[in-house]
């Protein structure tokens, strides 16, 4: 099975880094195909904890080639900060490949992202302010700057000048900010050219040749299904395609090359930023899930909103992505609860919805319809087989599997790299 997609099946922060890293020890390439440094993965290796933002989590697996695909937007400063931090801890980062077609996040887009969000006031989207959205907008407006542009100073300067012709008007006349200097921005970007050059490749060609040779590849999504620009809770979404369809455009491979699509999903639900969240808990139980699960953003440090498992979203994610498997994470966080509710449907103005409402307003007003399951008190962090789980934990997992419509192939029972129950081999 050469090509496996791993993506978030909720609003992100499901533990994709851990799932991808576990696969990474047995695969040849791990490819990030969308997003930028606006999301983070926490990977625990032994006693070491690594927070990755831009880099594919496969960079921690010896012998695995980590790849940043053309669908990613790259903040060069963040890239080298992460590489230097890993190198200082003894991690070999020399295998990293970056698509020559990936777009660069220039400093002026970080500025625009922050001032625009503040300008929106109560209508804020909840962006991380890292220039992701403006850079994707530049890409679509055909005024973006690609990695390959770093190697021709004349072209780079022309592109910077072209982008700033309009953006400086916005910065000065609308937001009362200082105009970005063309020469300074060009020099800032050129300073990275020599260092990034050895990493740059035609990654689409590399990946297709690897598939032809029978290599095993994992495609790792940034963000998650419900943040997808097309299929998420628009407009409270990211600016890229975080679903399985984004693999083809973001990595440069055909859809027929994908063999398995794995959704990573928490045993409850979290979300960062603005937007509707039907099962959100605004009480002591929500705070309990936040503290017990360590629900604070890897990239921003923001406290995550918490709520119960939403089977409607799980079914929707299964359909949108064509999921073949689910990896259920953080089951251990629910230990000690007398009852564990699960959202099985929505009530919208007195009408039951077993599937996602078709319009944004209905979803915004959706009230969860819950089914309760008996909890468990036993410590499950040592469990390595399904049968070792307490009976009530087993029943909970089996119920989620049935309601979600996708088999649960692995279960996370603790933060450690090894704290996982494998029910079905994701590469078999």
TrEMBL record:
Location of this chain's protein in the cell: Cytoplasm
Required cofactor(s): Mg(2+)
Cofactor: record remark: Binds 1 Mg(2+) ion per subunit.
Binding site for IMP: 13-16, 38-41, 128, 142, 223, 238, 302
Catalytic machinery residues: 13, 41, 139
Described purpose of this protein according to its UniProt entry: Plays an important role in the de novo pathway of purine nucleotide biosynthesis. Catalyzes the first committed step in the biosynthesis of AMP from IMP.
PANTHER family: ADENYLOSUCCINATE SYNTHETASE
The name this protein goes by in its record: Adenylosuccinate synthetase
């Amino acid at each position: 099975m050469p090509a496996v997609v791993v993506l978030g099946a909720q609003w992100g922060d499901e533990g994709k880094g851990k799932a991808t890293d576990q696969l990474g020890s047995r695969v040849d390439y791990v490819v990030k195909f969308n997003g930028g440094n606006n999301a983070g993965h926490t990977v625990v290796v032994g006693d070491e904890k690594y927070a990755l933002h831009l880099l594919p989590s496969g960079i921690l697996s010896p012998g695995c080639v980590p790849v940043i695909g053309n669908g990613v937007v790259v903040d060069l400063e963040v890239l080298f900060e992460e590489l230097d931090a890993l190198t200082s801890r003894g991690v070999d980062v020399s295998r990293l490949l970056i698509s020559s077609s990936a777009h660069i996040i220039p400093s002026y887009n970080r500025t625009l992202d922050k001032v625009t969000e503040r300008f929106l006031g109560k209508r804020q989207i909840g962006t991380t302010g890292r220039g992701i959205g403006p850079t994707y907008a530049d890409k679509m407006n055909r005024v973006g700057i690609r990695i390959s542009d770093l190697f021709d100073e004349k072209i780079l300067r022309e592109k910077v000048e072209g982008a700033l012709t309009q953006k400086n008007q916005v910065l000065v006349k609308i937001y009362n900010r200082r105009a970005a200097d063309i020469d300074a921005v060009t020099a800032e970007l050129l300073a990275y050219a020599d260092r990034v050059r050895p990493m740059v490749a035609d990654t689409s060609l590399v990946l297709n040749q690897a598939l032809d040779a029978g290599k095993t590849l994992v495609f790792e999504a940034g963000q998650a299904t419900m943040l997808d620009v097309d299929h998420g809770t628009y407009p409270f979404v990211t600016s890229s395609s975080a679903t399985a369809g984004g693999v083809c455009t973001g990595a440069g491979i055909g859809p027929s090359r994908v063999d398995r699509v794995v959704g990573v999903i928490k045993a409850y639900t979290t979300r960062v930023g603005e937007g509707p969240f039907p099962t959100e808990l605004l009480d002591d139980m929500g705070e309990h899930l936040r503290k017990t699960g360590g629900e604070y953003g890897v990239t921003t440090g923001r406290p995550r909103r918490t709520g119960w498992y939403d089977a409607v979203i799980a079914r929707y994610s299964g359909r949108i992505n064509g999921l073949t498997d689910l990896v259920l994470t953080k089951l251990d966080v629910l230990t000690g609860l007398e009852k564990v509710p699960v959202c099985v449907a929505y009530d919208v103005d007195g009408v039951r919805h077993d599937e996602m409402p078709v319009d944004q307003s209905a979803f915004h007003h959706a009230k969860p319809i819950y089914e309760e399951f008996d909890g468990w008190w036993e410590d499950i962090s040592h469990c390595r087989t399904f049968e070792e789980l307490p009976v009530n934990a087993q029943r909970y997992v089996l119920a989620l599997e049935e309601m979600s419509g996708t088999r649960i192939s692995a279960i996370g029972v603790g933060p450690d790299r090894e704290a996982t129950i494998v029910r079905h081999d994701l590469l078999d």
